[in-house]
Amino acid sequence: GTPRRSAIVVPVAHPARELRELVGARAAWAHPWSSAGYLVPRELLRAVAIDPDQALRSQSFVGSFDEVRRALLAGEADFGALPYGPGVAMDPGLRTVALSALPIPGDVLCASSALTAARAGDLVRRLVALVQQPELEAPMRIAMGGDHRLVAAEPGPYRDLAAALEEDLSVHG
Fold this sequence. Notes:
There is one protein chain. The protein has six helices and seven strands. The chain is of the alpha/beta class and 173 residues long. The strands form two sheets. It has a five-stranded mixed sheet. The chain has a two-stranded parallel ribbon with strand order 6-7. The protein starts with a strand and ends with a helix.
């Protein structure tokens, strides 16, 4: 499918029309390891000379994209970040202020070319058995696209995301 991007959103009644108008605002982030919900949007702010750690009134981790939506609609935050793209419905109470230019790489399972499709299927069955939920095998196969989601690693699309993560880790440890 088409990769998703990151959207910085505000409640529809919020006056901000561009990123620079978010200085002094309260941010609600999904969680610190979220590309669409934290790393990429913070990089968008930095790109317009807004240091999130210095220029925002507050930042909080709310745990999920649903909680970001809830916090914005409840007036607990002025802006947040959500994924944007195919299969993502935007709440009518929210408005997009900025959108990442580059898509965020999707999740894939990477494996050695020596791993056969049969062996991959065996590993999926073992993983399902390990978590004691055999009913997950069929949905996992659908989510993985059968055995065809096992592909060689391609680091190129992840370089920007890795740079944003490294910058955040250097600041926050």
